[in-house]
Write a structure and sequence with these properties.
- The protein has 313 residues and is an alpha/beta fold.
- The protein has helices at residues 3-6, 29-40, 55-65, 67-71, 99-110, 128-132, 166-179, 194-211, 216-225, 233-240, 242-256, 265-272, 300-306; strands at residues 21-25, 44-48, 75-79, 90-93, 118-121, 141-146, 155-160, 182-187, 285-287, 291-293.
- It has 13 helices and 10 strands.
- A hairpin with a 3-residue loop joins strand 9 (285-287) and strand 10.
- Helix 8 (194-211) packs across helix 10 and helix 8 (194-211) packs across helix 11.
- The termini are far apart.
Length: 313
């Protein structure tokens, strides 16, 4: 059966491979979420630290975050050595959102991992087939895109290339089943389903703020009170990370040359100032004891200070 035939079926694979040991390449925000999710499923996780910095600090952070899961029997190994991938049943690459970086990480990992296991890339805006060019066998790679936040949502997008084997697809589906996520199958197309829709939605909201009809809080309230989304576009952007949003937008614009993905100047301005969202305490909102609109992100905030009833429902 070809991958294209397989993707007509939305259920878990016919004979699910055993997934007991998972390696995660990268211990940043995205990698940490996957590590915690796999620990919650009581998997043995090998976390490979890719960036400089004391590995002891990374291990301390990951163990503190997964303390409950580790107490229930999950196992965690934190390492810099790719050779520690030898026993993994599946490898998840969670490196920076760059084709070159992802290719380099996967090429090195392929030389150390077992020859019959699957690799998954967590890209949300790059072409999986281009990343796969770094591997000796492109049939081993599939896109495994979670929708933020991973711990709270149920969706994982599985993006197969023309070369992805059914064995690789089966392994990815088996992992989703093991960690309690629902896979939606899609072909290799940058942005897949969710990011193409969500990124363009957020960017359009930013453009509305730049044009001045309303502020960030008013737009978020309008979208949530209308029932069109559970979180407004600016709350979503801050949770995602404005630097991540900017990278996604740049990649999607480069791939599709579509004005929907053009980066608004306000987004660039906030990222330059280091206001990256919740993780830095400031983005479109300021995060203190309460969440308040960031005056630097919304000219409409000045109007609200003059007219406190401007945004009354």
């Amino acid at each position: 059966m070809t991958t294209e035939t397989s993707m007509r079926h939305s259920g878990i694979s016919r004979v699910a491979p055993e997934i007991q040991r998972v390696a995660v390449l990268g211990c940043g925000q995205l990698g940490s979420e996957w590590i915690q999710l796999c620990l919650a499923a009581e998997l043995h996780v090998t976390a490979v630290k890719l960036l400089p910095g004391p590995i002891e600090d990374t291990e301390r952070r990951l163990r503190a975050r997964g303390a409950g899961q580790l107490a229930r029997g999950a196992r965690l190994t934190v390492t810099r050595a790719m050779n520690d991938l030898a026993t993994a049943h599946l490898v998840i690459e969670a490196a920076a959102e760059s084709v070159r970086i992802k290719q380099n990480v996967l090429a090195e990992a392929e030389t150390c991992a077992a020859t019959d296991i699957a690799f998954a890339t967590t890209t949300g805006s790059l072409r999986v087939s281009e990343i796969a060019e770094a591997l000796a066998s492109d049939k081993r790679l599939i896109g495994l895109h979670w929708c933020n936040p991973l711990a709270d949502g149920n969706l994982v997008e599985l993006a197969a290339t023309r070369g992805t084997s059914t064995a690789t697809l089966d392994a990815a589906q088996a992992l989703c089943a093991r960690v309690g996520k629902t896979p939606i199958l899609t072909f290799d197309h940058p942005g897949f389903i969710v990011n193409q829709l969500v990124v363009s939605h957020i960017l359009h909201a930013i453009e509305l703020v730049e044009r001045g009809p309303a502020g960030i809080e008013e737009i978020d309230r309008a979208m949530t009170l209308s029932g069109l989304c559970t979180d407004g576009p600016f709350a979503m952007a801050d949770a995602l990370g404005l630097d991540v949003l900017l990278t996604l937008a740049k990649n999607l614009y480069a791939e599709h040359a579509d004005g929907r993905f053009a980066c608004p100047s306000l987004l660039r301005h906030l990222v330059r100032r280091g206001a990256l969202g919740k993780k830095t305490g400031a983005g479109f909102y300021l995060y203190g004891e309460t969440r308040t609109p960031n005056p630097d992100a919304s000219p409409f905030a000045a109007l609200r200070s003059v007219s406190p009833h401007a945004s009354a429902a």
